[in-house]
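Final report, Chapter 2: Outcomes

The project's central promise was a pipeline that accepts a single protein chain and returns its three-dimensional structure in a standardized token representation, suitable for archiving and comparison. That pipeline is now operational. To close this chapter, we reproduce one record exactly as it appears in the project archive, with the input sequence first and the structure output second.
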Amino acid sequence: MKNLKNIMIVITFLVSVAQANDIYANVTAVKVSGDEGAYRFAVTLKSTETGCAQYADWWEVLNEKGELLHRRILVHSHPDTQPFTRAGGLLNIKKYDILYVRGHMNKRGYIGTVMKGSVEKGFEVVTDLPTFSKNIEIQSPLPQGCLF
């Protein structure tokens, strides 16, 4: 009986790990419009949203140094409209500045694909990410809750 209990504990743990790995906020596209010094970003996210309990609550743009340049707060969940695109910002950057664009899940943090690039050359998914400061996650602006 003890072995069966241990097996059940292991199975429960493995299922929870597998489910945790299935939660993501992937940046799938970045489009930029405007002129140098005033660029507007339209970011497409594909995320595993179930409602306010699990949703992508923002996307953000960081410079190469890891400084937060813009954060677009997402005020509600998008479980039935995946992927979705939201625009934001008038970023005072140069067309050749290297940027990172990433999404954030409300209870899981930065989990998902990140895009790197520039206005001049475009953006692509990258896996070799620098270590960004943990303080960015608590930097303003922050969401004030989820509407639905």
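Archive annotation: The chain has one domain: 2-129.
This record, like all others produced under the grant, will remain available to the consortium after the project formally closes.
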